[in-house]
Amino acid sequence: MSMGGTPMQQVYARRRSQHWIDRLYRLLQPPLPLLENRREPRDFPLGRWNLYIGGAGCALSGYVNLDLFALPGVDVVGDAEQLPFRSGTFERVECDAVLEHVRCPEQVMREITRVLTREGYAHIVTPFCHPFHEYPRDYRRFTLDGLKQLAGDGLEVVAEGWRTGPTATVLIFILEYVKIWLPWRAWRVIVHMALGWLLFPFRYLDLIFFRARSVGRIGNHCYLWLRKR
Known about the structure:
7 helices, seven-stranded mixed sheet, alpha/beta, Rossmann fold, 31% helix
């Protein structure tokens, strides 16, 4: 099935395609090999104006959705390093799995701080132990200490932790390791589905690891909640 546009536009077009091959592919997809930490806070208040950075493909009620490309769900096309908004516009900013894809994460954090209102909240999520993934580029990984350093003096940490744990790391790397042995995409798709269905029940082990202090040694994604001073 031929699709025009950028590689990212092709990815999202395939996700929404009604072609029978794409529909069958979505139907056979195994559950994600990860479990999100239920202890991660989600109840910090939404304001009248809220910004979601990098939410292409998502329907986000209550947010202005900004991304690099004009993809489904995107309200504003723009660069996170130069946010096209006035200072002090938003009461909450979500930046989920974005900082690893930007050239200058320090500049993105300065922009987030700038567009937040005083006492506004920023929610930052980044990968730590996670495979290489280009959307459209992949530059780096972060620890919690690294994220705190990026926050600088203008933002104070109000919550921190791990969204996805060490079991997610192991399962994702097993899937990726097996697939790099396979030269043809069709084989990789078949093996991903079969192995994904076989392995996904192990993700529930992270319910135990989320309670352990050592969860961050090979944690998958970490998060910070920050408040503007």
